[in-house]
Design goal:
The chain has helices spanning 6-15, 24-30, 49-62, 112-115, 136-146, 149-164; strands at 20-23, 40-45, 65-66, 89-94, 97-102, 120-123, 130-133. By secondary structure, the chain is α/β, with parallel strands linked by helices. It has a single domain (6-148), classed as Beta Polymerase, domain 2 (2-Layer Sandwich), CATH 3.30.460. The longest helix has 16 residues, at 149-164.
């Protein structure tokens, strides 16, 4: 599996004109939040069909495969897009590391449409790579909404880091 290169993944997505918002651990890194390192990048793309077609083209360039027990994942048909766009989440392995496509994250049931209104354009670990990234307040809201132990631990770490700063 390739080492995670968040900027490279974002560069490919943006070069294809994919409309998406960076969420999860990658958003925390961009926002310089005191949380543990992430092993993947999570994005929430628009479900508009033209955007899904651009996302499929980006998957081609990223050599995206479904994350499975196999070292290189499992190939999946990228077209027609409704074969995979119907799912809430895709866990992918790419030539630049792990990518989670989360269409409707906990706390944002309308996905991209809920997140895009408050997201901000930010540099993503490289001065020449920018993308929409959720705000810290949205990051907290999504972590709280998930209720998963991992996310609650991230919130505790974030809050502990803030109180000691």
């Amino acid at each position: 599996m390739a080492d995670l290169d968040i900027a490279a993944i974002v560069r490919v997505l943006t070069s294809h004109g994919v409309e998406f918002v960076v969420i999860g651990g990658a958003a925390a890194i961009v926002r310089d939040l005191p949380v543990p390192a992430t092993v993947d990048i999570d994005i929430t793309p628009s479900r508009v069909e033209a955007n899904l077609e651009r996302l499929a083209a980006a998957f081609d360039e990223l050599e995206a495969a479904l994350l499975t027990a196999e070292p290189d994942g499992t190939w999946f048909p990228r077209r027609p897009v409704d074969n995979w766009a119907q799912y809430d989440t895709l866990h992918l392995i790419t030539r630049f590391g792990l990518l989670d496509v989360v269409f409707a994250p906990d706390g944002a049931p309308r996905g991209f449409d809920d997140l895009v209104t408050t997201a901000e354009q930010c540099a993503v670990l490289s001065d020449d790579v920018t993308a929409l990234v959720i705000t810290t307040q949205t990051w907290v809201r999504l972590k709280e909404a998930s209720g998963r132990s991992k996310d609650l631990e991230h919130l505790d770490h974030y809050r502990d880091g803030r109180s000691s700063a």
